[in-house]
Structure formats: C-alpha cells, structure tokens
Amino acid sequence: MDTDLKALALVCSLKASPAESSSDLIARQILDELAGHGVTGETVRVADYDVRPGVDDDMGDGDQWPAILEKIRGVDILVFSTPTWLGHMSSIAQRVLERLDAQLSATDDEGRPAMFGKVAVVSVVGNEDGAHKIVADTFQGLNDIGFTIPAQGGTYWNHEAMNPKDYKDLDETPSAVASTITTLSSNAVHLARFLKGTQYPAVG
What we know:
Layout (H helix, E strand, L loop, with lengths): L5 E6 L10 H14 L4 E6 L19 H9 L3 E9 L2 E2 L1 H10 L18 E8 L4 H15 L8 E5 L16 H23 L7
Parallel strand pairs: 1-2, 1-3, 3-5, 5-6
Antiparallel strand pairs: 3-4
Helix pairs in contact: 1-5
C-alpha cells in the first residue's frame, strides 16, 4: 500500500556539493527504492551547512543545524549515510549524532521524546573495514535518541583491504547491496506506516 510518508537522507560525506560522493550515491539509491513505495524523499549534504559543535538545538552565531533539524522533524524516515574513515564513521556523522542528542529532552504533548515514531536506516561505504561497527554504533545512537530501527535496517559496501576503490566508481551496484537496499526500504516503510498509525504509548 502506498503512503504519504516522507524521508530525509542525511549524507555525512566530508565532501561538500557538488563533489561526487559515494555516501550520497548510496543514500539516493535508498531514496529511489523508498519512492517505489510512495515515499517522498530529500537529500541533505551536511557538509554544505555550517553545523557547529555542541549538544543544543541551536549553538548560535550562524549555526545552520536548526534548518536541518526542522527537516528531520518533518519526516517519517531518516536515512543516515556515512563514509568510513580510519575504521570509523566520518567526523560529520559523529557531529550529527551529537547534535541530535538534544532531542532526548524535547518531547511531544504526551511526554514522548520528539523522535519517537520516526524510523532510521543506515548506509555505510568505504574502501576499508569498519562498516559493521559503524552501523552498530549509529544504530545505538539513533535508538537512544528515539528512532526506531527496522529489521535489516543497515546496508554497506566495503572494497577489499589494501586495494582502494570507491562505491561511486563501480560499473554497477553489487547484487548483494541492491538486494539489501530493497529489503531495508521495504521494512522501513512497513515500520513507518505502522508507527504513523499506532504511536508509542505516552510517557508518564
């Protein structure tokens, strides 16, 4: 069943637009798959914004995180996409999680954390190991903040060790990655549709 769900892909590449980005490519592939389920999607390249360090909604002095946060608040599905650097998520991805931490104290009218009812999925690309740990760390952080993770809600691609190659330079999407994106997207929509109709219980 199609829905009026909305998705936002936060691309945590270290490269600002219009530079080509593997993290951007895989995020857009997920949005394309979500579109097949009637989901409207948008991409935000976080490096295009001046996102200040901190754990408040607005750090002032030209901080542009509030504009991104407003987009997150308006969607049902968050696609969190990061490259792998030195075996870890990008510094921008870490900053996004730190800025989202403020949402633990933001609540709705019934006392639920503000991100309750939103679904999050993760994609990781890189030419070194680290994807499993990045997915695990990101899932834990997003779940702490209040996002719900669907079954098999992560996808990744790593090239073989010591032989660098970027995901964006592949001739075609590997079948295992394409299959995972299909499952991830279907499960995300299923869960988001359910949560939109049946929100978590009120807190208190």
